[in-house]
């Protein structure tokens, strides 16, 4: 039985997604211009309603939909050790991700670059013009905070994938766009600065149709994640403490509620990218791209046996993450023939009865869950050699999984911190199983500097970042290609 609260959540985020689509349609003439010239933006920004429309449009590049062709998932999942590209071989770029044969001309990289800068440009449009219109202070603060956070998210993603990238903090005229890269560290510094400012401006929670917008907790969390990448461990701990002090987040009892259609936007959700099966272009295409071809999917992600074997005996998260022989798989019985590996993703896949089009899924992408925030805390405390504190944060996450197992007394035993190396490895393992297929794994291997140990084709000094699309270098002669490409 679905509770009234869960029905309310489902309807509200669908309405928010619908609002974004209608706004994008109504603003086609503005949004199709890339970049948007100063004259266009100033003439468009006249009222508070204009600002609302513009900030709503800034959410659109986040979506994993067919219009965006957002292949962030391929960089994070296929290039790591969780899954391999299956399907009919029609997406050569996906095969290149797994084999580390991608080049500056790989289509998926070019598409992703443009998509992030589309979002950045839209955020800059808002930030450049919000002070010139009549709007009440609360709305102005919220919209400004959203724009700062979203721009930070797009820049974090770019720096994560490509390393240093051009940093635009205002809408540039076309003849001034040719600027060199800003270093990855300085991009990250800008992300932290903007997230800290956004956290001051944004509310901790929303009600009604605004559910799904960026919050104070999301801004603090993205800052914490960026600090984690910079290995500024004490600041990570401090930022996590700020998130906890909001008293907004907790772990849900059922791990799978984070990936189920009717239990999204729950108390574990810190930053969740909204999708809705409305046949209006805001659905999640992973529902088709990841689903087995045996259930009319494309099978472009097949989970490896090595990854499945990494789960401890009895860990309930394994079956929630991927399906194996004779297990339930969105209402059908999974068989080994459903993929070349014998395993397919469960996350982001939903029964056909819940959507009219396979590529128009309604399951959100939980980019930051509170469980991950706790694992950031555990990791930072371990690196500070605060072993007891690291153990406590780790245990909070393991305890939820343990209690959901068939035999809690004998499953996922308590890990006692005996040394820094031992607890560090335990935390890394926990990230692997807790966050499986949630688009973190490859980037974790890189930042831990262990990718060469795990991924045979990984070349140190090259594959830590992906190549800058050649077309962008052709258009901007100030850009320098990443080493090795």
Total beta strand runs: 8
- Major sheet: arrangement of strands: 1-3
For the record, what CATH class of the largest domain applies?
Answer: Mainly Alpha
- What Rg is obtained from the alpha carbons, in whole angstroms? 22 Å
String of helices and strands: HHHHHEHHHHHHEHEHHEEEEEHHHHHH
How many helices? The count is 20
Level of helix content? 40-55%
Ends apart, CA distance between termini: 54 Å
Given helix and strand content, the structural type is mainly alpha
Overview of the structural elements:
The chain is mainly alpha-helical. It has three domains: 28-79 and 98-202, Serine Threonine Protein Phosphatase 5, Tetratricopeptide repeat (Alpha Horseshoe); 246-274 and 367-456, Serine Threonine Protein Phosphatase 5, Tetratricopeptide repeat, CATH 1.25.40; 275-303 and 314-363, no CATH class. The protein is 47% helix and 5% strand. The chain contains 20 helices and eight strands. The protein has helices at 4-26, 28-31, 38-44, 48-57, 72-78, 92-99, 107-129, 137-162, 184-201, 216-229, 233-245, 286-289, 305-309, 317-321, 370-383, 387-403, 420-434, 441-447, 451-454, 470-475; strands spanning 83-84, 269-273, 302-303, 322-323, 328-329, 332-333, 344-345, 365-369. A hairpin with a 2-residue loop joins β5 and β6. α1 packs across α4, α7 runs antiparallel to α8 (137-162) and α15 packs antiparallel against α17. The radius of gyration is 22 Å and the shape is globular.
